[in-house]
Structure formats: C-alpha cells, structure tokens
Design a protein that fits this description.
- The chain is an all-alpha fold and about 80 residues long.
- Helices cover about 65% and strands about 0% of the residues.
- The protein contains 2 helices and no strands.
- It is elongated, with a radius of gyration of 35 Å.
Length: about 80
Amino acid sequence: MSLPDRKEAEARLLLERRTGEPVPADLAARALADGERLLRRRRALRTALWAGLVVGLAALVAWSLALHPWAAPPPTTTSPAVGW
C-alpha cells in the first residue's frame, strides 16, 4: 500500500468505527453565547483602540497649536552693533 492509500484507508476505518457519541443538548446555545462574548470583546477592544487613537491625535493637534513646534526658536543673543 502506498502512503496516500494507507492514510485514506486509516481515515475510512476511523469513520466506520466511529460510535455515535452523545452531544450535550445545550452545545449550540453555549457555542452561540461564547461567539457573542468573543465578538463583544473584539468590538470593545477595537472601539477602545480607535478612541485612544482619536484622543492621541487630538492631544497632538492641541499641543502643536499651542506651542508651534515648527517655528524657529527666538534668538538668545543680540545682533552685532552696526556702525562701529
């Protein structure tokens, strides 16, 4: 038997031997609740990240409007006297 044939034969054997194991009656409801909880958490995290980004951007804009970081600093020395 070649390798793919052996794997296929093992899979068929497992499927044929499979017993009908009982599934809990509330499995679908629990899966639905878990999925909804996961989606709520992801949505809350995404909202928090976007809110943090917007707050950070607003703080950057407010800082730049208040301090004008692009302007040249005022000179600290006087210019030389003219006419000497």
